[in-house]
Amino acid sequence: MAAANHSPSSPYSCAKDSGPVIPTTSLVTFLERVQETAFQTYERSKFDHKDFIDLSLKFDLSTTVKAFDEISKTENGSVSTKDFEEFIGKWFKSAGEDLVYVEPMDFETEPYGFLPKVENPEVRAWALEVHGLWKKLSREVSSSVHDHPELHTLLPLPVPGMIPGSRFREVYYWDSYWVIRGLLASKMHETAKAIVTNLISLLDTYGYVLNGARAYYTNRSQPPLLSAMVYEIYNRTGDVDLVKKALPALLKEYQFWNSEIHTMIIHDAENCNHSLNRYYAMWNKPRPEASAIDKRFASKFLNVNEKQKFYRELASTAESGWDFSTRWMRNPSEFTSLSTTTILPVDLNAFTLRMELDIAFFAKIVGDDAIAEDFLTASHTRKKAFNSVFWNENMGQWVDYWLNYGAEPKEPQTWEAQNQNQNVFASNFVPLWIDLFNSDTPLVEKVTRSLQSSGLLCAAGIATSLTNSGHQCRDFPNGWAPIQHMIVEGLWRSASTEARKVARDIAERWIRANYVAYKKTGTMHEKYNVEKCGEYGAGGIYRPQTGFGWSNGVVLTFLEEFGWPKDQNIDCN
Ligand SMILES: OC[C@H]1O[C@H](O[C@H]2O[C@H](CO)[C@@H](O)[C@H](O)[C@H]2O)[C@H](O)[C@@H](O)[C@@H]1O
């Protein structure tokens, strides 16, 4: 039976909030106030909370706050739409003005050797359009941010980079991996390296790679894929200097993910202890970028401690990159039952396993055999933990492990079968992406059969979960490019004929769905509806976004690997 069904009635009955909290800036606090006023001023459908936290000041903060106090001096603090709009126009630069468009340094309209396996002219023309989107997503931080950082929530970065698109105006951590994969297919190696330079600069400044390059994202990271980015670039370019630059940063990042807040110990049936990772944001207040909404969600908790605990769960879910999903909810129909910090996520641990393997590989390249040895040992230890803690033999999948409430990081928890979450999520198949697993052919064949019968494989790709929660964007019927990519690449790297057939089939479905949606809407989307080929996804606390960095990256990567024959139809079947 699924662990979710074993939950106590209130997950917060003995909630405590003792974790670290990273201070934020006075500007962010003020913009949250502006966002709250916007929330009260506009209709919900016309309002994106993030637009208000991304505003830049035209004048200094204290003068702006005084002016805002003046217009808010009504009895109930409300502001008319006219006064509010005048105030925003007079005192702020628009959201997005802090980043400026920049021509990518190595963009060519049709680079030499571009997607050689794409023979179909229609598909090739579309692929060139998607390639052309890099020009639209390329940005550098404006000089005003460098000269007057106190006027902006945007953080300065040393070199130009790529943004996901639309409301996601700044650089994001894990999105960058698929952006880099696409850039490599587009032969834009220098732009790919620049993205790594920016992420390393965040790591050097903060000790971890931030969720995104904004002051309000300093309280958390995102799925750690920096080592994978460096690996892919090195694989294409053989750039040893990049590896030398990245290795010390990656060692620092490894410490961050294996520090006390991000690790829990599981004691298995064979008497072994396994240290595994979880998401845990250093924040127990509303997420500034969505604070007006978070406060309303939290209003059901009367106790401050319960509210803080819930806010940490919201921010930790944002750290997971899967914000939001029934995956993190003890009660799938109750959003406030989010319990991300009490879950050992199978995909996060696959990423840290990959980090161990990548670091060992890089250490060998730079000639540090001791580090290479240590990290190889760590990867073998973690592989054992995968077998003991996450693997579910009956399902043929690796599944998330639910921790007991109130557990302290240093206290080992005894593994219990009922704590494995047996609900089916696409993340249960992400370990396939790791070579230690995809090189084991019988294992891959078992997992492939499980994927085929899971219900996740749909007309237009892999669904995120089997639950149609109606409002969570990381659930059925939404499909996300990163998930398609990791599972397809894992299956494709194996030696199993059947797994490779499934990989090609999923990639083709995904390409068709992206193509048809592009033809209908003229744009690439953040997520797609996998039930209906050619439709984009929906749900969540913000409107569906376009652009879109990782979707472009995955389509180009799939087209580079699988190609598209001349006579093969590209429409939805
Ligand atoms: O504002 C809401 C949330 O927006 C981001 O999350 C979503 O977009 C990101 C950029 O494409 C993506 O990395 C993430 O997986 C998406 O869920 C942001 O990362 C969240 O922290 C934020 O709360």
UniProtKB/TrEMBL annotation:
Top EC category: hydrolase
GO MF annotations, alphabetized: alpha,alpha-trehalase activity
GO biological process, one term: trehalose catabolic process
Record EC number: 3.2.1.28
Catalytic activity: alpha,alpha-trehalose + H2O = alpha-D-glucose + beta-D-glucose
InterPro entries on file: 6-hairpin_glycosidase_sf, 6hp_glycosidase-like_sf, Glyco_hydro_37
Alphabetic keyword roster: Glycosidase, Hydrolase
Protein family: Belongs to the glycosyl hydrolase 37 family.
Name used for this protein in its record: Trehalase
